[in-house]
Design brief:
Fumarate Reductase Iron-sulfur Protein, Chain B, domain 2; 19 strands; 473 residues; 5-stranded mixed sheet
C-alpha cells in the first residue's frame, strides 16, 4: 500500500507531502512563489516558458516545477544562483524582439498575410512611415483597407482572450492616413525588364498588381471601363464610408510609379484579349471584379422597379438619377445590403431590409448592422422573397414568405426553410436585391483568346501560377 506522505526537502526545509503533487504545488502550499508564464490551474501543465525551473539534487538539468512531480527524498532549490540565471535567460528570450519568428493567428487570418506584429511595433515606437512601408510589402492600399476591411484578424487576436482584441485595422488606418498627410512614400521601381503587362480592370486587384509589377520593373498599362480607378472600392462603397479624396491620393502613389491608364476601355466592347496580345503585351492580367448582381430567382425580377444592389450603388456614385420613391426594400444581409439601405435612407426613402435568416447568421459586420439600424432602417429577419408583383409594367410589391431555420448548410449557417401558408404582400416603390455579385463574363463571350470558364462564371486557372487556359493570361 502506497504511503500517505513522502519526505522531500524544499529550500533546506524537510517536509512531509502527498505523492502526486508537482513541485509547483508543493512550493505554493509552503508560501513559496515560483514564477511562470504558461501555467494555468485549469489546464494541463505545458512546460513551455521555462520560467518555473528549479534545481533538483542529482538531476542532470533544471526541471520545470509546473510538470515535475515530487518523489521520495527529492531535494529541491527554487532560488539558487543557477535557477535565477536560467530564469533570467528564459525571460530575456521571451521578451526579445522576435516578431517574424512566429506567425501569429492574426497574421495567419489576414487575407494579405500582412506582418501585423511588425507594423504595430513600428507604430508603438512612433515610426509611422516604417509601419506603412511594412504594410505595403503585402497591401499597397492601406488607406482604403483601413476603412472598409472586415478585419478578420481581430477575431483571432490573442489579446481577446484577456479583454478585447487590439484595434489592428484602425491602427493601420491611422498610420496610412498620417503617412499620406505628411508626404506619401513612393518607392523606386525596379530596373526596367523590357516586358509589358496589360491589366484589365483598375479596381483594388488591378491596382495592387500594377504596384508590385512596377516594383519588379515591368511596364504596366491598365484598361479601365469606368471614368475613374478604384473599381468596387469606388463604385460599390458609399462615400460616407470611403472618401474619394483619400482614395485618389493613395491611387496616385501607384500611378506615380509609372503606370499608364486607359479609361473608358471595356473588355469585349473596345478591345479583346487577342487585341492586347497583338499589341505586344507579354502578359494579360484579368482583374475584372464581380460587378454583376446575383439574381433573386423569383418571378418578375427583371421588371422596372427592381435594381441590383451593386447597380444601385454605382448609379448613385456616378450621379445618375435614381427614383427611390417613398418605400424601398433591400434584400440581403451582407455589407452591400447595409450600404444600399443606408444610401436609400440618405435619398429620403423609408427602408425595410429583408433577410432570410436570423440576426445570428447575418454576415454583415456588427458595426455595419448597428449603424444601419441607428439610421432608421427597419430590419425583418426570417423573411425571403417569393414573387415580385407587377402593375402597369412596373414592380409595386413583393410577395414574401416567413422562414424558419433548419440544419446547417455547407457554409455552416442554418438553412432557411419556408413556413407553409406564411405568404405576405409588402408594397414598395423600389426593390433592391443585394444578395451577392458575380463576374460579368459577357466581356469575353466572343473573344478569340477567351479563357476557359467554370459553371460558376469564373475563370479556370492553375492554382499555383494563376495562369488560365490561355498562355500568358
Amino acid at each position: 500500500m502506497m504511503s500517505e506522505t513522502i519526505t522531500v526537502t524544499l529550500n533546506g526545509k524537510t517536509l512531509e507531502a502527498k505523492p502526486g503533487l508537482t513541485i509547483r504545488d508543493l512550493a505554493k502550499s509552503q508560501g513559496v512563489t515560483i514564477p511562470t508564464f504558461c501555467h494555468d490551474d485549469r489546464l494541463k501543465p505545458f512546460a513551455s516558458c521555462f520560467l518555473c525551473v528549479v534545481q533538483v539534487a542529482n538531476a542532470r538539468t533544471l526541471l520545470p516545477a509546473c510538470s515535475t512531480r515530487i518523489a521520495p527524498g527529492m531535494v529541491i532549490e527554487t532560488d539558487s544562483e543557477t535557477v535565477t540565471h536560467s530564469r533570467k535567460v528564459a525571460l530575456d528570450l521571451l521578451l526579445s524582439d522576435h516578431a517574424g519568428d512566429c506567425i501569429a493567428p492574426c497574421e495567419a487570418t489576414c487575407p494579405a498575410n500582412i506582418d501585423i506584429q511588425g507594423y504595430i511595433a513600428h507604430i508603438a515606437n512612433g515610426n509611422f512611415a516604417a509601419a506603412v512601408r511594412l504594410i505595403k510589402e503585402r497591401n499597397p492600399l492601406p488607406v482604403v483597407c483601413g476603412r472598409i476591411c472586415p478585419h478578420p484578424c481581430e477575431s483571432q487576436c490573442r489579446r481577446g482572450l484577456v479583454d478585447e482584441a487590439v484595434a489592428i485595422n484602425p491602427l493601420k488606418r491611422f498610420a496610412a492616413d498620417y503617412e499620406l498627410s505628411n508626404g506619401p512614400f513612393v518607392p523606386t521601381p525596379g530596373a526596367e525588364t523590357g516586358k509589358r503587362v496589360a491589366i484589365v480592370g483598375g479596381g483594388p486587384a488591378g491596382l495592387s498588381a500594377a504596384y508590385y509589377l512596377r516594383l519588379m520593373g515591368h511596364a504596366v498599362e491598365i484598361f479601365e471601363a469606368l471614368p475613374h480607378l478604384g473599381g468596387m472600392a469606388r463604385y460599390g462603397i458609399p462615400r460616407f464610408r470611403l472618401p474619394w479624396d483619400r482614395m485618389d491620393r493613395e491611387i496616385q502613389v501607384i500611378l506615380d510609379l509609372g503606370v499608364t491608364v486607359h479609361h473608358h476601355q471595356r473588355l469585349g466592347r473596345d478591345f479583346t484579349i487577342a487585341d492586347l496580345k497583338a499589341r505586344g503585351f507579354g502578359a494579360v492580367l484579368l482583374a475584372i471584379g464581380a460587378h454583376k448582381a446575383k439574381p433573386m430567382r423569383v418571378e418578375n425580377e427583371d421588371v422596372p422597379g427592381v435594381m441590383g444592389g451593386v447597380d444601385f450603388l454605382r448609379k448613385v456614385v456616378l450621379g445618375e438619377t435614381v427614383e427611390v420613391g417613398n418605400r424601398v426594400a433591400v434584400l440581403g444581409g451582407g455589407d452591400t445590403a447595409m450600404d444600399c439601405a443606408r444610401v436609400a435612407r440618405r435619398l429620403g426613402a423609408s427602408v425595410t431590409l429583408l433577410y432570410r435568416r436570423s440576426q445570428a447568421e447575418m454576415p454583415a459586420l456588427p458595426m455595419e448592422q448597428e449603424e444601419t439600424h441607428e439610421e432608421g432602417v427597419e430590419i425583418r429577419y426570417l423573411t425571403a422573397p417569393s414573387k415580385v408583383l407587377v402593375r402597369d409594367g412596373r414592380a409595386y410589391a413583393l410577395e414574401v414568405i416567413t422562414m424558419e431555420l433548419g440544419e446547417p448548410d455547407e457554409s455552416g449557417r442554418r438553412r432557411p426553410v419556408p413556413m407553409v401558408d406564411s405568404e405576405e404582400v409588402l408594397e414598395f416603390d423600389l426593390i433592391i436585391p443585394a444578395i451577392g455579385q458575380d463576374p460579368d463574363m459577357d466581356c469575353v463571350a466572343g473573344d478569340p483568346a477567351k479563357p476557359e470558364t467554370t459553371r460558376w462564371r469564373t475563370f479556370v486557372y492553375d492554382e499555383k501560377t494563376m495562369v488560365t487556359s490561355q498562355e500568358g493570361v
